[in-house]
């Protein structure tokens, strides 16, 4: 069900393996190497000690934009990314990804974790250069212990705590591809909420007195902070398992390991005195740890002051691995491979742009112009406490011009709503989850945050769920629906229709599991709780190519309600 490899093995030199570890909602300050005595992260710290550190590395304020930039080397608005759910997280497919480049150069490629850059092909990771994908494509997940996941489009059940599970898959992937270069992308899902972590890690923090606090202590919730730090220590343990495996199998020397986060911390906690958190374009919302280790080619213990960002990772990795990219495709990011190898010492004065929610800030080598056009010397004032706009008015004005030009040329390229794709010519499986649907009538989402939500309160034949879709290639598809249903409500007849085609199926098997999640939460969640949904085949439907509205409704309702709905899975039955 994944993509076929279209690559040639390059034999001229021994290419380095590459592992990218991306954490979710971890702040710059959530590491002991950065001075946080509230936790211990020796394995992550060792990547910095044994490798190189960029002390001024910047990502975007939220998840999808950073991931899009990491994967393409382009600023996220240029890719059409404008949201973190309901299709706004999808990247323009005309821009190749990091995996595309390395796959064509003979690398085995895999991604295990939280994708968050599109679910339906051609946006799915299998259609963006990753031969193997295991995890979830949404922005967050409702249960971290053996939840519903997918493996190359097929619905599967996870095994154990998610981060442990993803790293297990990563180690297994490495074990199978030791004879060829590999690219392993590990976009881990913590410390993003819900705040779930195994007991062995939580027990270290439950009664711990925290020495490092957020500068405004009244704003910090210590229970949330403890949960986040426990999750980071679990990440550290998993990083230790991964790096130990590399060393035990003599893969350490020629493997590039990158560690970074996707945005600032998801709560007010100690972050080195930086201003802002996740969602903010200030330092605290966008400064990320960035460690890169490659014993065969990068001297250990190096610290670079050069301002670098998520847009720079792709061109830099291509440079380090000597992988060519098309000459006519310019990146927004820069190649810092020579600097990392010690072949270039001069700092390149450049600007990094941070943008979200109609707010834009600019970071140069020493200064930040914030979204309100206040100017700060970050080298001397990382907490952004002293506005230099009056004393440095010429610099401020020049950065305002630069910011406005970037907004006009880049930020205005956001594409807006597009239909969800179905029936890609190269892939048999397509999911349409509740996250991407619209409801009509009585039906409600289980939670205001769409990503892991389901639909409930379905009571009338006038109620419906719709998706704006584009069928990329006509064909016949089996449709599998995931649902729950109370005993007294069985017998409802469902109808799924698109243009002139429709199929109907009665729900005859009850399934009424409890909501889960609260029993494992270390802090009350804001996301939806989840439950165990089961599949039912609605039958086979023929879909004509083109755009239209897919409608799911009930034609008969013998009970009080119909079903609670989670997702549709389309399986192409005809020849590709």
Which key features would you list for this structure?
single chain, 576 residues, alpha+beta, Alkaline Phosphatase, subunit A, Jelly Rolls, 3 domains, 10-stranded mixed beta sheet, 6-stranded mixed beta sheet, 10 helices, disordered N terminus, Sulfatase_N, hydrolase
Give an account of the 3D structure:
There is one protein chain. Helix 4 runs parallel beside helix 6. Strand 24 and strand 25 (501-506) form a beta hairpin. With 576 residues, the chain is of the alpha+beta class. It has a ten-stranded mixed beta sheet with strand order 7-6-5-4-8-1-9-10-2-11, with helices on both faces. Strands 17, 19, 22, 24, 25 and 27 form a six-stranded mixed beta sheet that branches. The chain is globular. It contains ten helices and 28 strands. The protein folds into three domains: 21-341, Alkaline Phosphatase, subunit A, CATH 3.40.720.10; 354-413, no CATH class; 420-572, Jelly Rolls. The longest helix is centred in the middle third of the chain and has 27 residues, at 222-248. It has helices at 42-50, 63-72, 98-104, 162-176, 199-202, 222-248, 283-286, 313-321, 337-340, 393-409; strands spanning 17-23, 52-54, 57-58, 108-114, 132-136, 148-151, 154-157, 182-187, 255-261, 290-293, 302-304, 308-309, 352-356, 359-363, 367-369, 375-377, 420-422, 429-433, 438-440, 444-445, 455-456, 464-471, 475-484, 493-498, 501-506, 534-543, 546-556, 564-572.
């Amino acid at each position: 069900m994944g993509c076929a490899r279209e690559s040639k093995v390059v034999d001229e030199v021994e290419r380095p393996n590459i592992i990218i570890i991306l954490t979710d909602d971890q702040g710059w300050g959530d590491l002991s190497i950065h001075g946080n005595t509230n936790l211990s992260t020796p394995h992550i710290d060792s990547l910095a000690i044994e490798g190189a550190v960029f002390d001024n590395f910047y990502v975007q304020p939220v998840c999808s934009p950073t991931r899009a930039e990491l994967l393409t080397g382009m600023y996220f608005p240029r890719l059409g990314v404008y949201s973190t759910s309901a299709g706004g997280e999808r990247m323009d497919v005309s821009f190749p990804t990091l995996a595309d480049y390395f796959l064509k150069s003979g690398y085995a490629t895999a991604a295990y974790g939280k994708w968050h850059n599109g679910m339906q092909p051609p946006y799915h990771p299998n259609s963006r250069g990753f031969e193997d994908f295991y995890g979830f494509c949404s922005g967050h997940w409702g249960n971290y212990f053996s939840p519903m996941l997918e493996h190359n489009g097929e619905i599967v059940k996870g095994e154990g705590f998610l981060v442990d599970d993803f790293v297990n898959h990563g180690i297994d992937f490495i074990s199978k591809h030791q004879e060829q270069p590999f690219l392993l992308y590990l976009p881990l899902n913590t410390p993003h909420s819900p705040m779930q972590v195994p007991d062995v890690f939580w027990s270290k923090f439950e009664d711990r007195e925290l020495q490092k606090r957020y500068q405004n202590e009244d704003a910090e919730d210590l229970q949330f902070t403890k949960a986040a730090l426990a999750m980071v220590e679990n990440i550290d343990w998993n990083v230790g398992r991964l790096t130990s495996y590399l060393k035990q199998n003599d893969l350490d020397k020629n493997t590039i390991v990158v560690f970074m986060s996707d945005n600032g911390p998801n709560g007010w906690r100690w972050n080195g005195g930086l201003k802002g958190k996740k969602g903010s374009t200030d330092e605290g919302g966008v400064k990320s740890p960035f460690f890169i280790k490659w014993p065969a080619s990068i001297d250990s213990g190096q610290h670079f002051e050069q301002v670098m960002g998520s847009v720079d990772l792709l061109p830099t990795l291509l440079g380090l691995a000597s992988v060519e990219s098309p000459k006519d495709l310019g990146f927004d990011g820069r190649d810092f491979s020579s600097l990392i190898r010690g072949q270039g010492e001069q700092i390149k004065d450049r600007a990094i742009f941070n943008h979200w929610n109609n707010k834009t800030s600019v970071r140069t080598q020493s200064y930040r112009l914030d979204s309100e056009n206040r100017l700060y010397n970050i080298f001397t004032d990382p907490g952004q406490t002293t506005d230099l706009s009056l004393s440095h008015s010429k610099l401020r004005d020049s950065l305002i011009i630069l910011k406005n030009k970037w907004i006009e040329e880049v930020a205005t390229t956001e594409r807006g709503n597009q239909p969800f794709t179905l029936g890609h010519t190269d892939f048999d499986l397509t999911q349409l989850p509740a996250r991407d649907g619209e409801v009509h009538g009585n039906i409600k989402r289980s939670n205001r945050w769409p990503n892991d939500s389901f639909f409930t309160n379905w009571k009338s034949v006038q109620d419906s769920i719709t998706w704006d879709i584009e069928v990329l290639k006509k064909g016949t598809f089996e449709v599998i629906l995931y649902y729950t249903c109370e005993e007294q409500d069985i017998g409802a007849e469902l109808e799924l229709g698109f243009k002139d085609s429709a199929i109907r199926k009665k729900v005859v098997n009850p399934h009424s599991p409890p909501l889960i999640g609260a029993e494992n939460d270390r802090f009350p969640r804001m996301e939806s709780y989840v439950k165990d949904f089961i599949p039912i085949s609605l039958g086979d439907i023929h879909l004509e190519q083109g755009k239209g509205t897919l409608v799911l409704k009930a034609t008969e309702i013998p009970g009080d309600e119909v079903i609670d709905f989670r997702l549709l899975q389309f399986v192409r039955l005809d020849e590709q």
